[in-house]
Amino acid sequence: MAALKARLAAFVAERDWGRFHRPKDLAMAVSVEAGELLELFLWVGSDEPGGRPSPDRTRLEAEVADVAICLLNLCNQTGIDLAAAIARKLEHNAAKYPVSHAHGSALKYDEYPTDVSTS
Ligand SMILES: [Mg+2]
């Protein structure tokens, strides 16, 4: 993660793009790229004649990478340690979705018969 973070920072600096990369724009870019990722699946899975096939792995990888790059860029610009943030959130989610309630269930934590949420 640290190597990618440094490589992305260098990529941005070499192009003098940092002055355009305000947090709100980078957050928007994450959403735009997530939209491009979703677009790959639009109309896929229909049994109707002429439906679209599943996206190929190359296009899927490219859009996943775009989302991740924009997110990492947002983290770089705001000083967020993405790996640490993910680790903290996983810990939080483990408490929010205890195996005793979440195993095999697609319910949201506030839909459990007994509220086990932590926040
Ligand atoms: Mg894209």
How would you characterize the overall build of this protein?
- The protein has five helices and no strands.
- The chain has helices spanning 2-14, 23-39, 57-78, 82-96, 99-102.
- Helix 2 runs antiparallel to helix 3 (57-78).
- The chain starts with a helix and ends in a 17-residue tail after the last helix.
- The model has no long low-confidence stretch (mean pLDDT 93).
- Magnesium ion binds next to helix 2 and helix 3.
Distance linking N and C termini:
29 Å
Unique bound compounds: magnesium ion
β-sheet strand percentage: under 5%
Structural class: mainly alpha
Largest sheet: none
How would the global form be characterised? Answer: flat
Indicate the mean pLDDT.
Answer: 93
State the order of secondary-structure elements, H for helix, E for strand: HHHHH
What's the number of helices? 5
